[in-house]
Amino acid sequence: MIKTGGGTVQAWIEGTATPVADVAALDAILGRRPPKGVTLASDDGQRVLHINFYADRSDLYWETETDFLLAWGPVPPGAPADQVVGDAEYAYDNPWFALPDGAEPFEVTAAQARQAAHGFLRTGERPTNVQWVVKP
Fold it and tell me: CA–CA separation, 80 vs 30, rounded Å?
């Protein structure tokens, strides 16, 4: 199993955990048509990435002992990495949280969700390819 952030990664689907050893194993779990809900968790359960797939869009939730964050959308070109705002109203008012034309807040593409899963697998930390808002 891959070591990330001091532990291993488990992929949970419908109550069943599967150890994830590498990107190939993760991609096999996600498949071409991924299951609706996948939860990736560190072995200590202290860092969790929840992914819901809906055809070509997805939502991401990040959970730790102290954080529960919702992915707002992709990081726009030139924006600082790893941004988090405390409320969606601040995101709407923050020029760095601009969404691509036609994008809805709290949604990312399936490809961006996969990229986030790969980032978590690699680092064991919150993915940085999306921006985050504290869940109200």
Answer: 29
Q: Extract the tokens encoding 120.
A: 């978590």
Query: Does residue 114 contact residue 134 with C-beta atoms inside 8 Å?
Result: no
Q: pLDDT per residue over 37-69, tens digit each?
A: 999 999 888 999 999 999 889 999 999 999 999
Give the whole-angstrom CA distance, residue 17 versus residue 25: 13
CB atoms within 10 A of CB 116: 24
Q: Model's pTM, two decimal places? A: 0.88
Structure tokens at 41: 């968790």
Tokens of 105: 């807040």
List of residues 6+ apart from 68 with CB closer than 8 A: 61, 62, 134, 135
DSSP three-state, residue 88? helix
C-alpha span between 48 and 10 (Å, rounded):
10
Label the pairing between strands 68-74 and 84-85.
unpaired
pLDDT at 119 exceeding the cut of 60? yes
> How many other CB atoms are found less than 10 A from the CB of residue 128?
15
Spatial distance between the Cα atoms of 108 and 17, rounded to a whole number of angstroms:
25
